Amino acid sequence: MPHLSHLGAMPVEEFLRDYWQQKPVCIRNAFANLEPLLAADELAGLSLESEVESRLVENDGDIANWRVQHGPMQEQDFAKPRAYPWTLLVQGVDHFVPAAFDFAAGFRFIPAWRFDDLMISYATKGAGVGAHYDRYDVFLIQGEGRRRWQTGQVCNSQSELATHNQLSLLQDFVTEQEFDLEPGDLLYIPSLVAHKGVALSDNCVTYSIGFRAPSYSEVLGGFADFIGQQLSADQRLHSSPEPQPAAEISAYDIASLRTIISQQLSDENLAQWFGCMTTEPKNSALDLSEEAMDTTELATIIKDAYGVLRVSEGVRLAYTWQGDGGMTLFAQGEAIACPPEAADLAMALANELVLEVADLASLASTEASQAVLLVLHNQGWIYFDDE
Ligand code: SIN
Ligand code: CO
After folding, report:
1. Is 259 helix (H, G, I), strand (E, B) or coil?
2. Could you identify the atom of ligand 1 that is nearest to the CA of residue 121?
3. Whole-prediction pTM
């Protein structure tokens, strides 16, 4: 599946050079004739499911009174009109709706390991979740209706928050730019930039495609944990054989610590950890069961050459090359060793997400590549779609 080459009239290279992680930009008509990814009642339906993360924010006058309800929602939550404007926010719609998965894949001009999810918000006129900042870069695409967005100051951990026990709202918001978004318009907001959206119409639907980045603290803590799990408790720190003052932590001790740590700091260990960490499922409740298939069934499908092979919605894939032309494929937090004969297939799947079954005759011609295909299929991480 090819990613977008342009956002509206802007080549993605220009976007990456001039705006990405630097400053907000509004791109009018980035998606001409955008079809809704799913209907409002289907979005409400998703929020009733136990494995779907959702929130409903009701703007009852003063900010301190704004009510936040966490999903799963109940049918009756949507049965009667509400007295105040409200927003339903549903996370990870790309895990459940192929059209949302495909739409988000358009943004794979950004490294896939950064991608978090596609959230959809549905708001009534006047509704909004308040002034806040996210530690995410986000593309906000107006799906239906109209919304006014304001962008403001760059925030940080010291930025003062308003008193609300469930929403992290900013105490102060300094408006810098204002954009009224119509269907198909896009607003990009870098991480930490304050923003505030208010629905200008009923049936105001916004698609929010979020990109994450681990903090330095998560990098160091995560890597250390990962390595720690692989080391034996039998390996212990030794002290110097030389006499030394009892209370002194010696240069020898520090050098031993440095040796232990630097021995683990190989590119291979870093890649293994990073691949596993960044492909860990966002939604561990996702049901990916797929009926197990054997080599003979797979051979028949490849021979019939009909339909497509898709990476399952919500599944994260990444890979890293090994010296011998083979690779490690990471899927849902697990590492799968692929010999060189399986590398083309693994690379195509991880990069393209959808392959023509007709192309498998050449991509999956080896036993090794078919074995990788079966592992992925039987975990439910890929599936054949003959629609
Ligand atoms: C919204 O879509 O209402 C909120 C999205 C955001 O500000 O992150
Ligand atoms: Co936000």
Report:
1. helix
2. 2
3. 0.94
